[in-house]
Amino acid sequence: MKQLKSIFLYTLLMINSVFLIACGGKEGGTKDGKKDEVSGEYYDWRKTGKPERPYMYDYNKLVMMKIDMAQLKHDSDEATNVSATFDDALEMIKWADKITRGVQKIVYLVGWQYNGHDTGYPSLDKFNEALLRPGDKSVRDGYLWLVKEAKKYNTVVSVHAMLNDAWGPKNINPNNPDIYNESEKDHLKRLSPLWDTYVKNDLLCRNADGSLLLGWVGDGIVCFKKEWEKGYLQKRIDHVTEFFESYREQDHTHRCLLPLRKPLP
């Protein structure tokens, strides 16, 4: 338990510059009775200073945190290092509810997908099989179990997702030394099934000389403008919502590193 508390305290300190975006909606619409839909047309929030429709939660009244579930495992035939199971996560949530005295909380699971944190992106369509609980038919079952149990402790459980990153077969990004120096075998554990599709359809950002634009991590950066125009962003979001469609209260995700800049013309 001491180790679990240490891991949890670490997650409390992981404060990032991120957007918390409410995507999807609760059945029945918003509090004022309006149907909870957006038009899909361009919406300039600068004119109103508000989102197109109200957020699902009053985020300024919540405690929000992450739980580090799994990361890529280096120098091993195994792909994933599990730092917290769904059962461990529930114990952390119980403990957090005690020290926060029942304040409403949202917990985002990091490493829920593919082989853990920073793997598989831009794909968002597969749970991390290493998180399968004994007795469950699928990892999704374990996730939904945690979502249900966490509600008893004033906690909403959701997932963390990186929209920017794209992971390819070769490590070409020197900006993060730890990842850049990993072996080719380990780097392949990060490979996204969408890499070839995104390269073929020119959905990655490029420099003026045609080379791939690189960020802090990843072998490429998704070009949201092209991805949206060609319908691929919608496909990614649809995959995520299909995961949670049987659980109607899954109405938001933690989308990390959504860029704060206008799209290039």
Number of helices: 8
How would a textbook summarize the main sheet? 5 strands, mixed
Structural category: alpha/beta
CA-based gyration radius: 19 Å
N to C succession of SSEs: HEEEEHEHEEHHHEHHE
Number of DSSP E strands: 9
Model description:
With 265 residues, this protein is of the alpha/beta class. 26% of the residues lie in helices and 14% in strands. Helix 2 (86-99) packs parallel to helix 3 (139-150). The longest helix is centred in the middle third of the chain and has 14 residues, at 86-99. The termini are far apart.
Write the layout of secondary structure elements.
Blueprint: H1 2-12, E1 19-21, E2 63-68, E3 70-72, E4 80-82, H2 86-99, E5 105-110, H3 139-150, E6 155-162, E7 165-166, H4 177-180, H5 184-187, H6 195-200, E8 220-221, H7 224-229, H8 232-244, E9 253-256
Brief summary:
The protein is 26% helix and 14% strand. It is of the alpha/beta class. Helix 2 (86-99) runs parallel beside helix 3 (139-150).
Short descriptors:
265 residues, two-stranded antiparallel sheet, globular, disordered C terminus, 26% helix, alpha/beta
